[in-house]
Amino acid sequence: MDSDNRRARALTDNITQPAGRHVVPNSGCTVQASIAMKDVEKVSPTRWNSSSAAIQKIKITKLSHMRYCHPSSGMEALVSFMLDFGMEVVKRTDNAIWFGGYGIDQYVYYAEIGNEKMFLGGSWEVESWEDLKRASSLGGSPIVELTDAPGGGYMTSIQDPEGFPVNFIYDVTPRLHPTKQQAEPLQVNDEFLKPRKGAFQRFQPGPAAVHKLGHFGLTIHDFELQFDWYTRHFNLVPSDILYAQDDSGVKSDVAAFLHIDRGKDYVDHHSFFFSVAKTQHVHHSSFEVHDYDSQNMGHYWLKQKGYRRVWGLGRHKLGSQIFDYWWDPNGFMVEHYIDGDLVNEDTPVGRQPAGDESLAVWSEPVPATFLD
């Protein structure tokens, strides 16, 4: 036995690290924003407040739902996809379908039935009737009653400076309670803490049930034009800004992640983003699901059904969400996400270089289709 041990030690002693190579294992932890961003360039609030002091901003309270038009010939394929994506049909008429999650929102996705696919805009809930009227005046658009929509309410639809539709709603009656009970967090045994004793993990395969709409994004042409309009007229402020730097060292902002400013109240890191690109279009809309297991089971459910994957799973750097992107049957991109950051007026705003490294902490390589 002693000779065996000596031979084993001799073999181990002969194993050396390659010259100049030092491997550090991965790690992760939860840290306060001020620590996480200590080496990041900070942005002063004058970047978005200087020109709007005299303007009474339209107060947004939340992102409500997305609106799209889909061709009538593809509606059944869309319904099948949405069910497999984790939504439910709340209401259907000859002209539209309302899809819901299990949260208090009556619906999170409105699909108009038309002749061709079209982006009809994200929909923001505003604080008061006066805010809705100000939005209506800003766009010179009428206020219409949503007589067919679950929860009712009123809406006005305007256009931003690049022609994207933007919707504002008010007086929608929410559900009294979520349709799904809050699940107990899974007990997880790591290498040191093992709270789960004599209990097993068991799961039911199926779609990842959607809770709520989290955010959406656009690809645009003129960053300053769009940034000024959205931050001047609404209580939307940046959480992070990305820039590109030319050969002479000049930095130009090219992307922004915006949250709803509710003062000291914590809100999602971003409800809206836009980035400069060659073509203008909606980039994706993103929906929150329960946890990592439900997200993964949803991923494999969609994969087994033969739907087209875009990118994921992975974890974003900005916002920290674990993401999973898919194409719907008509070519619109949608996302499942979990574990997003929360920010408020005290959270520092960062400015850093754009690039693949700003998109993900871990993932497969970013596909070209995601960046188009």
UniProtKB/TrEMBL annotation:
Signal peptide positions on this chain: none
VOC domain boundaries: 212-339
A Pfam family matched in the record: Glyoxalase
One MF term in the entry's GO annotations: methylmalonyl-CoA epimerase activity
Gene Ontology BP term (one): L-methylmalonyl-CoA metabolic process
Record-linked SUPFAM superfamilies: Glyoxalase/Bleomycin resistance protein/Dihydroxybiphenyl dioxygenase
Keywords assigned: Metal-binding
GO terms under cellular component: mitochondrion
InterPro entries cross-referenced by the UniProt entry: Glyas_Bleomycin-R_OHBP_Dase, Glyas_Fos-R_dOase_dom, MMCE/EMCE_epimerase, VOC_core
Name of the protein in question: VOC domain-containing protein
Source organism: Orbilia javanica
